[in-house]
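Input structure tokens:
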């Protein structure tokens, strides 16, 4: 599939037809993509033509490009002007005939009656259905020629340094039907995601770093018909980004994982990490926990299960809203996971109002308690910590009681809620803390609640700590295309300036207070204060500075806390970073991470040294080997590991992978084995 040359239609507009039989058409304005449509759909083509005319396209050139007459374009424009998009959909006549007008009026009346009947039902499920509908997107049939299929070329045994990558590809194809999913959306450009998979497994942090790798060996292990040079990859990426299918792709992946049981549905941990930005554009700021300061960028809201597998993620501007994210997750997955899961989050989403809203909507949660008093915890009788367990090689003891929380709504209504309060004593480090939960006691025990909040924020830290050391977590393969943000309200800069002035005046006033404390008052012989004494001068200075401070506070109180940058000419408009390329790359990173967790679990049951099974997995993934492809199968042979116990586990893992029955989209079996070089003898 290749993009044809852009055809000029006037006024800096152009049209490009994509793929064989021109099954897609793209409209460009000043070399920037405006819209991409399915050219085989007559309605979409009509709408594109009318929009091009509205943008100033020359009708004669437009008619020549689409192979229609000039009068047809005039008819489209007239129909849209009179009847709107409905006229183009139903092919109304441009002439205002009585039959057409009557049909339009009857259709409108019937639609209005039907809408009134459905309004009540739609209102009940509007929030949940709008979120869940994102998961119900249909897939297109793969449109890939045989010669463009992966591993289509037949070859004899060929050496490659990257044979271990094949273990990830087999699992992705077998458990996620990965290649067919990608081909259904991107056709032959699915090969771009195979290159991203290679980068994620090998921890290669950018496309530019591929110049240090053996491109011919990468092409052979990934089944590509050409070397993945930087120029080719950039071309593939540009084409894929123009289709804007990233959200569709992610929702399909997340839905498949839930329905296929590839992720857990009991506990979901929601956390975030900052994607920092170092360019010149003005962006919303998020908090960097590593640097402990606010930095411009985006926040990736990631939800994982109890084993660390990624369930869902979303990239938000600036700091992000983790509180609303929890409600969005509950609404999005309410139909697929009706009896759970239990939401686990840290203190960032803490709040009585938040807890009350979650409890009202039936969202179960477990979290840390905020603002605990250490001296009160230390005063607790140790005998009350009756339940003991071990986690992450540390000993814990717990017990629980109840805690009542309350909050006041804007209308003055007072709300009360009773929560479970879990006391946790880390016996190993002799530290105590607390957690809160609304999960019924017959659903989760005290120990299970304690284990839940310790799983991600105890000694094991969180998923990002491990994921970031193995994958390029912050890499964006595409350019940082920025546009105006939908949220233009910013902190008033005058408020910050007034705060600085107030701080300086307070410091000056404090100095005067100290001098007055050290200066004695001098009196005249008649007992009156001497006017020209040091004490009198300091007293006058104190009164003047106090008056200045009071004036500054009054000015500060009159300033609005936040401003809309669109209304203030002195403020630069806030931009936002396009997330399409980042979502595509994170789709691959999440897939590879979850497959890594699955293969690590398989190794855990067959390898004796439980502390080294993850390192063994990475050793297998970095094995050299050989690949052979014929008309029926693609076979990869890994170089055996030296240590006997590791080699035995390597062979058992390969047997497990062969039993998955993975096949390429063109029907070839994907097999992996361990053995000596087939090129000798």
């Amino acid at each position: 599939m290749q993009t044809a040359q852009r055809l000029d239609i006037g006024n800096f507009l152009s049209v490009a037809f994509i793929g064989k039989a021109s099954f897609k058409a793209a409209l460009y304005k000043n070399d920037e993509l405006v819209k991409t449509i399915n050219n085989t759909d007559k309605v979409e083509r009509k709408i594109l033509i009318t929009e091009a005319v509205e943008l100033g396209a020359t009708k004669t050139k437009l008619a020549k490009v689409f192979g229609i007459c000039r009068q047809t374009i005039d008819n489209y424009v007239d129909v849209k002007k009179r009847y709107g998009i409905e006229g183009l959909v139903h092919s109304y006549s441009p002439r205002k005939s009585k039959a057409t007008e009557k049909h339009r009026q009857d259709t409108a009346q019937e639609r209005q009656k039907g809408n009134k009947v459905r309004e009540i039902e739609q209102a009940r499920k509007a929030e949940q259905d709008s979120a869940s509908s994102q998961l119900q997107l249909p897939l297109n049939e793969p449109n890939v020629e045989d010669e463009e299929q992966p591993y289509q070329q037949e070859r004899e045994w060929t050496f490659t340094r990257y044979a271990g990558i094949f273990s990830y590809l087999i699992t992705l194809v077998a458990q996620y039907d990965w290649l067919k999913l990608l081909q259904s959306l991107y056709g032959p450009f699915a090969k771009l995601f195979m290159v991203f998979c290679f980068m994620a497994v090998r921890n290669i942090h950018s496309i530019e770093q591929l110049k240090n790798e053996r491109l011919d060996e990468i092409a052979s292990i990934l089944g590509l018909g050409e070397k993945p040079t930087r120029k080719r990859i950039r071309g593939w990426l540009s084409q894929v980004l123009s289709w804007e299918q990233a959200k569709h792709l992610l929702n399909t992946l997340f839905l498949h994982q839930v329905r296929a049981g590839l992720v857990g549905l009991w506990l979901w941990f929601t956390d975030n990490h900052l994607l920092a930005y170092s360019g010149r554009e003005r962006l919303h700021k998020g908090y960097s926990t590593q640097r402990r300061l606010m930095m411009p960028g985006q926040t990736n809201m990631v939800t994982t299960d109890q084993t660390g597998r990624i369930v869902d993620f979303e990239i938000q501007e600036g700091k992000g809203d983790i509180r609303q994210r929890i409600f969005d997750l509950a609404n999005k997955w309410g139909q697929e996971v009706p009896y759970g899961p239990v939401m686990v989050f840290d203190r960032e989403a803490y709040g009585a109002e938040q807890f009350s809203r979650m409890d009202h909507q039936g969202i179960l949660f477990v979290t840390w308690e905020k603002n605990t008093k250490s001296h009160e915890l230390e005063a607790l009788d140790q005998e009350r910590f009756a339940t003991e367990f071990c986690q992450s090689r540390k000993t814990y003891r717990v017990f629980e009681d109840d805690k009542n929380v309350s909050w006041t709504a804007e209308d003055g209504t007072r709300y009360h809620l009773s929560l479970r309060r879990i006391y946790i004593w880390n016996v190993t480090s002799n530290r105590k803390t607390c957690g809160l939960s609304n999960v019924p006691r017959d659903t989760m025990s005290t120990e299970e609640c304690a284990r839940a909040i310790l799983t991600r924020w105890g000694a094991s830290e969180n998923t990002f700590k491990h994921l970031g050391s193995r994958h390029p977590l912050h890499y964006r393969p595409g350019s940082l295309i920025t546009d105006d943000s939908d949220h233009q309200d910013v902190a008033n800069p005058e408020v910050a300036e007034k705060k600085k002035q107030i701080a300086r005046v307070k410091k000056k006033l404090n100095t005067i207070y100290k001098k007055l404390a050290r200066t004695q008052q001098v009196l005249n012989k008649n007992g009156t204060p001497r006017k020209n004494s040091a004490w009198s001068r300091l007293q006058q200075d104190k009164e003047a500075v106090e008056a200045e401070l009071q004036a500054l506070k009054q000015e500060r109180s009159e300033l609005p806390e936040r401003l809309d940058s669109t209304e203030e000419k002195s403020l630069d408009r806030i931009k936002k970073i396009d997330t399409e390329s980042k979502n595509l790359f994170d789709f691959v990173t999440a897939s590879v991470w979850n497959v890594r967790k699955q293969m690590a679990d398989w190794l855990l049951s067959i390898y004796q040294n439980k502390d080294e099974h993850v390192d063994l997995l990475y050793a297998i993934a970095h094995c050299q080997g050989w690949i052979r492809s014929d008309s029926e199968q693609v076979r990869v042979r890994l170089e055996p590991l030296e240590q006997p116990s590791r080699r035995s586990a390597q062979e058992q893992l390969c047997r497990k992978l062969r039993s998955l029955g993975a096949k390429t989209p063109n029907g070839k079996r994907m097999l992996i084995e361990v053995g000596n070089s087939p090129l000798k003898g």
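The first strand starts at residue 7 and ends at 10. The mean pLDDT is 85.
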